[in-house]
Design brief:
This protein has about 350 residues and is of the alpha+beta class. The chain has three domains: about 120 residues, PAS domain (Beta-Lactamase, 2-Layer Sandwich); about 80 residues; about 150 residues, Histidine kinase-like ATPase, C-terminal domain (Heat Shock Protein 90, 2-Layer Sandwich). It is about 45% helix and about 20% strand. The chain is built from eleven helices and twelve strands. The strands form two sheets. Strands 1, 2, 3, 4, 5 and 6 form a six-stranded antiparallel sheet that branches. Strands 10-11-9-8-7-12 form a six-stranded mixed sheet, with helices on one face. The chain starts with a helix and ends with a strand.
């Protein structure tokens, strides 16, 4: 191989989007690309010369030696662990879900195996989200069906019977009393339908705007919790599309709900502001608390909960980005960035920051 050809090969090897490791016939790592190092958390010097079992989970390392020897005796290009959930062991002890393809390579200098590793943690999160969305959708349908059947449908059936009785009632005073009672029942049904509608989409977004909707949700969540709160809201709702406003509202709603349910925080801060100019301008929403925190990276590697995955997916659909920074004992910060709507009427108007401090 010429020097130029080798340099071209090296450039492709280093730029590959998947992790690649090369192992000799004794199971020793002799080469590794940058993507594999990023996936596994090692430096190149730490991996070169190490056995391949160093990146295999502890519980299967002994078995892996036999599998490796068997593969080297009968090498073939194939996926590894078909229909199995494979994991690679990171330096920090976490396990990363991966897909692995093996390709044997015979050279005058010996036999080698090239292993291509693909990080499937994102796919796993999306599968979790998909399953969770289906489950949540079905549960929501059942909830709405129960409310419509137990409340609205039964009230309508009772109203129909009363109308039939009303049609056969000759006494005017009795008819008037029945009409007043029926009017009260109709008003109750209207409120029930409105309650169902509010559960499907927050009307405050259309009625009073993004900032007021967040402020109302903020006050409801932290009322009588004893958590000290700061709220900083710029007037940015008009800069976003209706879909963008809904994404910001839902992510902030989920984040502050998590603070109340899980964080054990003494203080929480919510911010909504515009950052950047021109094509880089974004509406940024953040929720920060000083609670117990958690292993954020480990949660995402493990597939994360539906709430975190849902926030990340909402950001992606809106063309934005989502980040979560947390560690045990160090609190948590959720940050959402959403691009501005393609067309914004007039210059952005920014109201003074609102700062609210309370103890419940």
């Amino acid at each position: 191989m010429t020097t130029e050809a080798f340099n071209d090969f090296r450039a492709v090897f280093d730029a590959a989007p998947d992790g690649i490791v090369v192992v000799n016939d004794r199971g020793i790592l002799i080469e590794v690309n940058p993507r594999a190092l990023a996936m596994l958390g090692y430096t190149r010097a730490e991996l070169l010369g190490a056995p391949i079992e160093s990146i295999v989970p502890h519980e299967v390392r002994t078995r892996h030696v036999g599998l490796r020897d068997g593969f080297m005796a009968r090498p073939a290009h194939r996926p590894m662990g078909a229909e199995m959930e494979l994991r690679a062991a990171r330096k920090d002890g976490r396990e990363l879900p991966v897909e692995v393809a093996l390709r044997p390579c015979h050279t005058p200098n010996g036999d080698f195996v090239i292993a291509v590793m693909r990080d499937t943690s994102t796919e796993r999160r999306l599968r979790t989200l998909g399953a969770g969305v289906l489950r949540a959708t079905e549960e929501e349908r059942q909830r709405i069906a129960r409310e419509l059947h137990d409340d609205t449908a039964q009230s309508l059936a009772a109203l129909l019977l009363r109308l039939q009785v009303l049609a056969r009632t000759p006494d005017e005073a009795t008819r008037q009393g029945m009409l007043e009672q029926m009017q009260a029942e109709v008003e109750g049904m209207v409120e029930g339908v409105r309650r169902i509608a509010r559960g499907l989409r927050p009307p405050a977004l259309e009625d009073v705007g993004l900032e007021a909707a967040i402020r109302s949700q903020f006050r409801r969540c932290f009322h009588e919790t004893g958590i000290e709160t700061d709220l900083h809201l710029e007037s940015v709702g008009h800069l976003l599309s209706p879909e963008g406003q809904l994404v910001v509202y839902r992510v902030v709603q989920e984040a502050i709900s998590n603070v109340v349910r899980h964080a054990g925080a003494r203080h929480v801060e919510v911010r909504l502001e515009r950052q950047g100019e021109g094509g880089t301008a974004r509406v940024v929403a953040s929720v920060r608390d000083d609670g117990r925190g958690f292993d954020a990276e480990g949660a995402f590697l493990a597939g994360a909960g539906l709430g975190l995955v849902g926030m990340e997916e909402r950001a992606r659909i809106a063309g934005g980005s989502f980040s979560l920074v947390s560690a045990p004992g160090e609190g948590c910060e959720v940050r959402l960035r959403v691009p501005l709507a393609a067309e914004v009427d007039g210059p952005p108007s920014v109201s003074p920051h609102e700062r609210r401090r309370s103890h419940g």
